[in-house]
Amino acid sequence: MTADFKATRKILEVKLKQATSGRAICDSIRINQVADPLDMTQEAAARDVAVQLLDRESALVRRLRSAIDRIDDGSYGVCLRCEEDIAPKRLKAIPWAELCIECQEKADQMPSQRTHRFGVEEDAEAA
């Protein structure tokens, strides 16, 4: 493992620790019984936002763990779709990037293809 990848791994591990330590979102999902219909609507909206945040956080955790695994197995920095090298500038901006910029742009244009290999919709990554 090169010194650059050691530094990248450390960055990924710190980001992973941050992403997994903030599990207070789960408390926001709890269903509270309220009598007022307006309060019920507000509670439901707050739960929906919390679920979306939790989904996004879970997807990020998977991408971070996947990037650490790719560093360990020597495939880090290679696009998972076309198998070309991912630009160092992109990896510096998004160390957990799985696709080169060209493949990411294609994936962003085709919403049906924006699913991660785990079946979770990805956020658009820009670099």
The residue-averaged pLDDT reads 81
What is the class in the CATH system? Mainly Alpha
Low-confidence stretches: 117-127
CATH architectural category: Up-down Bundle
* SS-derived structural category: mainly alpha
Main sheet: strands, sense, barrel: none
Helix segment count?
5
In CATH, what is the homologous superfamily?
DksA, coiled-coil domain
User: Could you estimate the helical fraction of the residues in percent?
Assistant: 55-70%
Strands, total number:
0
Sheet-strand content, in percent, reads under 5%
Structural shape: elongated
> How do the SSEs run, as a string of H and E?
HHHHH
What Rg do the Cα atoms give? 18 Å
CATH fold descriptor: Four Helix Bundle (Hemerythrin (Met), subunit A)
Distance between the termini: 24 Å
What does this structure look like?
The protein is mostly helical. It has a single domain (3-113), classed as DksA, coiled-coil domain (Four Helix Bundle (Hemerythrin (Met), subunit A), Up-down Bundle). The chain has 5 helices and no strands. The chain has helices at residues 3-21, 25-29, 37-73, 88-93, 101-109. Helix 1 runs antiparallel to helix 3. The longest helix is centred in the middle third of the chain and has 37 residues, at 37-73. The radius of gyration is 18 Å and the shape is elongated. Mean pLDDT is 81; it is low at 117-127.
